[in-house]
Amino acid sequence: MHDHHALLDHVMKEMPDDSTLDNLTRLFKVFGDRTRMRILYALSLEEMCVCAISEYLKIEQTAISHQLRVLRESRLIKSRREGKTVYYSLDDSHVHSIISEGYEHITEVH
Amino acid sequence: MHDHHALLDHVMKEMPDDSTLDNLTRLFKVFGDRTRMRILYALSLEEMCVCAISEYLKIEQTAISHQLRVLRESRLIKSRREGKTVYYSLDDSHVHSIISEGYEHITEVH
DNA sequence: ATATAATATGAATATCAATTCATATGAACG
DNA sequence: CGTTCATATGAATTGATATTCATATTATAT
If residue A106 lies in a helix (H) or strand (E), which one and from where to where? Predict the structure, then answer.
């Protein structure tokens, strides 16, 4: 293996700490699932209750509930209860901007 | 289950098509891995060869190579060969902006 | 109090993706 | 041309995570 002293010194100094990188990774992992991405996109258009999401995406209610918990724990969505129904909506402006940046990347012509 | 006609009509009209959503998901999945996130961050600081990345992250060369391929296929990094050595660097300005948006989210106080 | 509707949750299963292992390729050099 | 170094790749294994299944919770209505 050849030498990389100078290079690695610089990188080591500038890299964020492990916990920051892990938090970043955890966040993007949440966007990296087909079901969650669809839920997020739908909620960016309308506040929706669990069974509306389930009906629209044609995915079982319990699978949706599990994913809503993941999204809630990442503080990307929030819920409010109205009687038996629980309504979900986006809880963060970054959802829009993160998705838009991603969208720009995938639609870029090369 | 109660009724959601009007709501779902609107969501259906505005949602991007399946392939767009799948491409978005695929992209964010790439950011959602500890090893790849570290590689991307390091490459955002310096152009690096495979063995420098491997040495720095203390991860076997072959695992790094596999992940570099994933990153290349997502058009997030590019490579150039110089003799036996292959140097990698970022291939897209969106890497910076996507990571920054994520960073803002995780550092936000609630 | 019981029944029903909407949602949530724990555990088991199924699916998918990262790492490892073995080996191949490509380049420089004697 | 054989050896060494840097990197890449296919297949096997391991590890992680999404979905399903069974069931619990919460609220409303009769």
Answer: helix A93-107
